[in-house]
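Students often ask why inverse folding is considered easier than folding. One informal answer: many sequences map to the same fold, so there is more than one right answer. In these notes we will look at a single instance of the problem. The structure comes first.
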């Protein structure tokens, strides 16, 4: 952040402080007694100073706490970082958690558009409806459940809380891969909304298989773990 200040401006401030007639009491650039001009003051120090000064609880937290009990927020925020996925997929999850994902219901407050669901054209398009309650989205989740059951013989329930915050299962591998399916599923629903088409399990699974193929070219611990678990559960006969 400090490096972003043009060197000329920084120099000007230093000279001004150095040669002005009045005694210098403190630097003009202080946050919580932290001297921003100190070369040891990096972005981390500034962020922590601002964070300590004004702790704000994300507004989505209160909203979802009213919908679900016992949300482990640390787990919810960090969920997408367990996987080797692109930022667009992470963003959909994070925007839902913050309750700031833009739906027709929200847009209709400012624009001359209907607040009705893009998929069913029947109900109000809220975040909950779009990603879970809409019959077309529900159909995608049900088919993912059946796919997991068919391939692994393990029954899973992708419920409302699983879709919005995180999925829980005692089997670590199922827990890992189903959470990944859900993150990918939410991204699929997001893309379908933008393209004004209906979510479709066949297309979703083709996209997911392509994603797994790309992971084979990325040799990181996250990508290797995903490929190993996917192959073990879904590919080997
Ligand atoms: Zn709908």
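Output (designed amino acids):
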């Amino acid at each position: 952040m400090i490096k972003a200040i043009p060197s000329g401006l920084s120099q000007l401030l230093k000279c001004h402080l150095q040669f002005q007639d009045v005694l210098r009491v403190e630097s003009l650039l202080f946050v919580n007694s932290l001297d921003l001009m100190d070369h040891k003051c990096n972005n981390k120090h500034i962020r922590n100073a601002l964070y300590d000064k004004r702790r704000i609880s994300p507004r989505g937290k209160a909203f979802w706490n009213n919908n679900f009990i016992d949300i482990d927020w640390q787990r919810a925020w960090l969920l997408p970082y367990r996987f080797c996925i692109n930022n667009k997929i992470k963003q959909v999850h994070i925007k839902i958690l913050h309750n700031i994902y833009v739906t027709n219901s929200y847009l209709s407050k400012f624009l001359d558009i209907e607040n009705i669901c893009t998929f069913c054209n029947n109900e109000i398009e809220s975040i909950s409806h779009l990603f879970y309650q809409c019959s077309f989205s529900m159909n995608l989740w049900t088919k993912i459940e059946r796919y997991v059951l068919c391939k692994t013989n393990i029954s899973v329930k992708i419920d409302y809380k699983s879709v919005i915050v995180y999925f829980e299962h005692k089997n670590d591998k199922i827990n890992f891969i189903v959470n990944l399916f859900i993150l990918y599923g939410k991204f699929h629903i997001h893309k379908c909304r933008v393209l004004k088409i209906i979510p479709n399990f066949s297309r979703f699974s083709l996209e997911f298989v392509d994603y797994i193929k790309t992971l084979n070219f990325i040799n990181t611990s996250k990508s290797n773990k995903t490929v190993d678990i996917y192959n073990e559960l879904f590919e080997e006969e």
